[in-house]
Design goal:
- This is FemAB-related protein, PEP-CTERM system-associated.
- Residues 165-297 form the BioF2-like acetyltransferase domain.
- By secondary structure, this protein is an alpha+beta fold.
- It has helices spanning 27-36, 47-56, 105-122, 156-162, 165-176, 188-201, 208-218, 262-276, 292-299, 330-338, 341-352, and strands at 3-5, 18-21, 59-67, 70-82, 86-91, 101-102, 126-131, 141-142, 145-151, 180-184, 222-229, 232-242, 245-253, 281-288, 304-306, 308-313.
- The protein is built from 11 helices and 16 strands.
- The strands form 2 sheets. Strands 1, 2, 3, 4, 5, 6, 7, 8 and 16 form a 9-stranded mixed β-sheet that branches. The protein has a 7-stranded mixed β-sheet with strand order 10-11-12-13-14-9-15, with helices on both faces.
- Helix 2 runs antiparallel to helix 7 and helix 5 packs across helix 8.
Length: 356
């Protein structure tokens, strides 16, 4: 599929818009638009198409709106069709932000129209937009997730002093243990720490291939910071860099991480390094309300900002609830925690690929 909508619905002849599907030849100008569009995020980048297709084998449709030969808006979409978790078209699964990034309301409406046509054609249960800001307050929505974002002061010491006293004490505790911090070029030590952490939480693990693809495709904009003690891996975090922001996205620690305050030290070390490199925003990422990670981030002095996940129902009539806080998954989580780690790492990727 190339042109989806040759005739614009706009009455303004100066703003005739056509909708197309991104091809390999379009990736450079797609990313050029994402880099300058204020509404765009790291999760709008063209590389996610390859990541989702190669890591999870899901179909993607990355749509863009064009006018006078220039991209005016983008909408990355991926389809998940699961017997257990339903059939959806989403922007964008495995990403905390998504939805339409556009230069005007006219362009947004054209992309919405094309997405709904595609959703109807595929007969999905629902179409999901993972917006940072509300776009359609009257649409069905999920009020479960928040994000935590905060400005990084240019002065390293001011950032440390801005951390509330109790949490600052935990950072200093980590500093006292003289932990090492190393930027890795491969995912091995990261996956070691991450897989142990999610297993303790009773959460299915992503395949190592997924993280390898993220590192390969996003290259220097995807960084692995590993914390060690006497050469032993204690914790690790995978972070994304976009414009002037740093986004710690996946992380985890071994059983020793808590007693060594390694995670506290790790996030401070990431903030410190980002400050010294001139980054201006620390995006601590998405958390479920009243979860452990929610409390952890609030302890750092970050304020929760609601995320606006909006839905258009196609065949479904209710907002999906595929998350660990859903009571019906409690028994599954408890059973998962008892699985040997090797078995959890083997089975987990087949489950989590359909959760999005």
């Amino acid at each position: 599929m190339n042109a989806l909508n040759k005739i614009s619905h706009s009455d303004d002849p100066a703003m005739q818009v056509s909708i197309h599907e991104m091809q390999a030849k379009d990736k450079v100008r797609w990313d050029r638009f994402v880099e300058i569009c204020p509404e765009a995020t790291f999760f709008h980048r063209a590389g996610w198409k390859n990541v989702i297709e190669q890591a999870f084998n899901h179909q993607t449709r990355f749509l863009y709106a064009e006018s006078n030969g220039e991209i005016q808006g983008v909408l990355p979409l991926a389809e998940i069709n699961s017997f257990l978790f339903g059939h959806s078209l989403s922007s964008l699964p495995f990403c905390v932000y998504g939805g339409i990034a556009a230069n005007s309301d006219i362009v947004r409406k054209e992309l919405e129209w094309a997405a709904k046509e595609l959703a109807l054609q595929k007969k999905v249960d629902y179409l999901e937009y993972r917006n940072i800001r509300p776009v359609h307050p009257d649409w069905p929505r999920k009020d479960l997730h928040v994000t935590f974002r905060k400005a990084i002061d240019p002065d390293v010491e001011k950032n440390l002093l801005a951390i509330p006293r109790k949490q600052r004490a935990m950072v200093r505790k980590g500093l006292k243990y003289e932990l090492g911090a190393v930027v890795d070029e491969d995912v091995e030590r990261f996956f070691y720490a991450y897989s142990r952490s999610v297993h303790r939480l009773g959460t299915p693990v992503f395949a190592k291939k997924y993280f390898q693809l993220l590192k390969e495709i996003f290259a220097e904009d995807c960084e692995l910071l590993t914390i060690t003690k006497d050469g032993k891996t204690i914790s690790s975090v995978m972070s994304f860099y976009f414009r002037d922001e740093v986004l710690p996205y996946y992380g985890g620690g071994t059983d020793d991480a808590r007693k060594l305050a390694a995670n506290d030290f790790m996030y401070w070390e990431l903030m410190r390094r980002s400050c010294e490199r001139g980054y201006k925003t620390f995006d601590f990422g998405r958390s479920k309300r009243d979860s452990g990670s929610y409390s952890f981030k609030k302890n750092w002095g970050f304020e929760a900002q609601p995320l606006h996940y909006e839905y258009q129902f196609i065949k479904s009539s209710q907002v999906p609830s595929h998350n660990p806080s859903n009571p019906k998954y409690k028994i599954f989580i408890q059973a998962w925690q008892k699985l040997p780690l090797s078995m959890a790492n083997l089975i987990g990727p087949y489950i989590v690929k359909n959760l999005g």
